[in-house]
Design brief:
Blueprint: H1 18-30, H2 34-51, H3 61-72, H4 88-92, H5 112-123, H6 128-149, H7 155-165, H8 181-191
Length: 197
């Protein structure tokens, strides 16, 4: 007795539509009469659309379905599509690789965004806004430091790191006091979900 297992079947081009839709597409390719082929293609598109009703509001939804039909037919379905048949290369080609930022981060535990915030603070005019931003940056840096290191960290270490990261351009006011370590750690404990028993 022969069993029809998925492992022995031809691999599906778009598995999200299932094997039955693929069989319909294969059948449509075999139809000799062009008018009948067009009717079959429209029926298949309708069924494909019914399988994903939540996507109907997306612009170009129908266009996507016709592109998928072309892909599932291996671009061999000769029909009168309401859209221009996509080129095989555009649908099969791999996406371009996203370039990875190669510039070094001096202190990894603060991250790239913190460096960008410090750069923005450097550009600001001296005054109360710059002091407030510096205070926010410093408190966030202290929180990040404690998240990754769990050691006690003094305000002086954070101020030193700000001076380093700003190239000495941010002057820390003498009276600046950061949040207490115990308060930062207590807040982060509250945010964690309770452990499941």
């Amino acid at each position: 007795m022969d069993y029809d297992y998925n492992t022995s079947r031809k691999k599906l081009v778009l598995p999200e539509y299932g094997r039955h839709i693929q069989k319909m597409v294969d059948h449509a390719k075999a139809i000799k009469d062009r008018e009948e082929r067009n009717k079959a293609a429209k029926t298949i598109i309708s069924i494909m659309g019914n399988m994903n009703p939540h996507l109907r509001d997306i612009s170009d939804f129908k266009h996507k379905l016709w592109d998928h039909l072309a892909l599932m037919s291996d671009f061999e379905l000769d029909i009168d599509s309401p859209y221009e048949m996509p080129a095989r290369e555009t649908l099969i080609s791999k996406p371009k690789q996203i370039p990875y930022m190669s510039d070094k981060i001096r202190y990894l535990h603060y991250g790239r965004i913190m460096q960008q915030m410090i750069d923005a603070a450097v550009e600001m005019e001296d005054g109360s806004d710059k002091e407030r931003l510096t205070m926010l940056i410093a408190n966030h840096m202290k929180k990040s430091y404690l998240t990754w290191n769990r050691n006690q960290v003094t305000d002086e270490i954070i101020f030193h790191d700000i001076r380093q990261l700003s190239g000495g351009k941010i002057i820390i006011p003498e009276n600046m006091k950061l949040s207490e370590t115990k308060d930062i750690l207590a807040k982060s404990k509250k945010k964690r979900p309770p452990k499941k028993k």
